[in-house]
Specification:
42% of the residues lie in helices and 20% in strands. It is an alpha/beta fold. The chain has one domain (2-144, 158-191, 248-254): Vaccinia Virus protein VP39 (Rossmann fold, 3-Layer(aba) Sandwich), CATH 3.40.50.150.
Length: 257
């Protein structure tokens, strides 16, 4: 388990996340991935309640609402909260507060790229599980410290970033944390290789970052249109998951009923 020795104050975090960017639009391909994920959630749907802790600008929750889910989001930044509320998403500020939410009130609890941001991940996980119903699903994504990109060029792996990222998990450490809470694995994948992250490295240039993001999106669109490139992507992700070397960990664990 890799983590920062520095613990940011609540004031530091609030100041940092108040300046976090608001993304008014998202890629159509990302929306397709959201639809695929929501289809995987269908077997856990009972009352239809879904929570996204650290929901950013609310694109995933808006997609879930369109498919009939009753959603709720949490965020630190005021701008993100305002953006979500403009989409009609009920919001709470800061972390999940189990005392303000009925115990076991959600069929599915999501946490996209959040656990690496929090100061105390075990406490964060306890709060998420408190509002997840027995038999419900916890879905988390987080960067993979064991990924190929970090092994290839550790000095330019820009996921290391204080006070944004404080904890760095591997498949083994994330699984160990979730199993210690009694959770049962539904799936744990390590997928993807970020071309934009590899190209930008530690560059501070906005132009370099923009060009890298545009290149990555163009590649995604090309793979989506081509059946053989799409097949190749799925094969590559299968290999990255089998080896544990993908950029992103995607973990789905069920709460025992």
């Amino acid at each position: 388990m890799v983590y920062t020795a520095w613990e940011p104050t609540a004031g530091e975090l609030q100041a940092y996340y108040n300046n976090y960017p608001v993304t008014s639009e998202t890629s159509p391909i990302t929306l397709l991935r959201y639809d695929e994920l929501l289809a995987r959630f269908a077997k856990y749907r009972k009352a239809g309640h879904l929570l996204d802790a650290g929901c950013g600008s609310g694109h995933f929750l808006a997609r879930a609402m369109a498919r009939g889910w009753k959603v709720h989001g949490t965020e630190f930044g005021d701008a993100q909260i305002a953006e979500c509320r403009a989409k009609g998403i009920p919001m709470s500020k800061a972390q999940v507060d189990p005392s303000a939410i009925p115990p076991g009130g959600f069929d599915v609890v999501c946490s996209f790229e959040v656990i690496e941001h929090v100061t105390h991940p075990q406490k964060e996980l306890d709060q998420l599980l408190a509002v997840l119903r027995p038999g419900g699903l916890l879905y988390m994504t987080t960067p993979n410290f064991n990924c190929l990109a970090r092994r290839w060029a550790p000095e330019t792996w820009n996921v290391v970033s204080y006070p944004e990222h404080l904890n760095y998990f591997t498949p083994r450490t994330l699984h160990k944390l979730l199993r210690s809470k009694g959770m049962r694995r539904a799936w744990l994948e390590t997928t993807g290789f970020s071309v934009s992250r590899w190209k930008t490295g530690t560059s501070e240039s906005a132009a370099v970052r923009m060009n890298a993001q545009q290149s990555q999106e163009a590649l995604r669109e090309k793979m989506e249109r081509s059946w053989y490139l799409n097949k190749g992507k799925h094969m590559a992700n299968a290999l990255l998951t089998a080896s544990g070397l993908g950029d992103s960990m995607k973990a789905a664990y069920a709460k025992p009923s």
